[in-house]
Specification:
Layout (H helix, E strand, L loop, with lengths): L1 H31 L7 H17 L3 H26 L4 H19 L14 E2 L9 H5 L1 E2 L1 H19 L1 H11 L1 H6 L4 H27 L11 H11 L4 H24 L7 H19 L3 H7 L13
Antiparallel strand pairs: 1-2
Helix pairs in contact: 1-6, 1-9, 1-10, 1-11, 2-3, 2-4, 2-9, 2-10, 3-4, 3-9, 6-7, 10-11, 10-12, 11-12
Pfam family, one: BPD_transp_2
Membrane topology: Multi-pass membrane protein
Protein name: ABC transporter permease
């Protein structure tokens, strides 16, 4: 019984951390290109409501996820047009995108509230699912969880083992130097911004179609902001981002298990609900307390505009 409880908590932790991993991987690639997009919360919300609407209309989970990715990608490209082409301030534009996306999603989603979708069954991995404790937790998950692991591996390979990953990081470090040797800095940054938007949409779609298959206003619940914090506090390293995402998921699931067990704690329910956010930020701040390490891994041109010479 104890093993079953541990396996259930581990499985729930992984599922809870999955949307953070998806969004944070997209934001990491965006920031590695030197672009700071603070609109993850808005893009996630738009991706969530779009995916839910498509799934509710009978489009199926795959089409729903693709629709959510496309909708968020359009928003990201609008942000790219403002900041990369029109040279608007990236921080202000990102904040506006976050606020606009959350508000628009709430407006679009009004007709879909209180209408649940069918639960999507997990996809067990033969043989591996029977490993004690870890098997049910790691190898009896929904397909999107496995996909998140593949995306982490792909981002790692792209950034640190591929030529174009090296070029992207060079653009984030010194766009003028990259432009001088013939690379299209703005085009590469647009591609990174589009990828970040698509990943945010995928994270939102996971929440509304797979994690809690329904639509409710505010269901993204700050995960976009947590994903942004993960990237910075993990010092732009993918594996640390994964660790932070599962840390957040673990604390969230732990407080839900405590509340569901009926244990009476002498603290307000609101404080209990805030513990995952507090714990994640606190631990990641401790991990990244070395300012030299942050400066070493931070893209040098992050948030700075670049205009190619005519």
């Amino acid at each position: 019984m104890e093993n079953h409880l541990i396996a259930s908590m581990l499985a729930a932790t992984i599922v809870s951390g999955t949307p953070l991993i998806l969004v944070a991987m997209g934001e990491l690639v965006t920031e590695k290109a030197g672009v700071l997009n603070l609109g993850a919360e808005g893009m996630m919300s738009i991706g969530a409501v779009t995916a839910f609407a498509v799934a509710l209309s009978g489009g199926g989970p795959v089409l729903a996820v693709l629709a959510g990715m496309a909708a968020a990608c359009v928003m990201a490209l609008a942000f790219g047009f403002l900041t990369l082409t029109m040279m608007a301030n990236q921080v202000a534009s990102g904040l506006a995108l976050a606020l606009f996306g959350v508000g628009l999603a709430a407006f679009i989603g009004k007709p879909f509230e209180s209408t649940p979708l069918p639960m999507i069954a997990p996809v067990p991995v033969p043989l591996l699912e029977h490993i004690p404790v870890l098997g049910p937790a790691l190898f009896n998950q929904q397909a999107m969880v496995y996909l998140s692991w593949a995306i982490v591996a792909a981002v790692l390979y792209f950034l640190y083992r591929s030529r174009w990953g090296l070029v992207l990081r060079a653009v984030g470090e010194s766009p003028s130097s990259a432009h001088a040797v013939g690379y299209r800095v703005i085009t590469l940054r647009y591609a990174a911004v589009a990828f970040g938007g698509a990943m945010a949409g995928m994270g939102g779609a996971f929440i509304s179609v797979f994690y809690t298959p329904l639509w409710a206003e505010g269901m993204v619940a700050g995960r976009g902001w947590i994903a942004l914090a993960l990237v910075v506090f993990a010092t732009w390293r993918p594996l640390r981002v994964v660790l932070g995402a599962y840390l957040f998921g673990g604390v969230m699931i732990a407080q839900l298990f405590v509340q569901g067990s009926g244990v009476q704690l002498d603290m307000p329910a609101q404080l209990m609900s805030s513990l995952p956010y507090i714990a994640t930020i606190a631990v990641l701040v401790l991990i990244s307390r070395n300012a030299h390490t942050i400066r070493l891994h931070s893209p040098a041109s992050l948030g700075q505009p670049f205009r190619p010479d005519a």
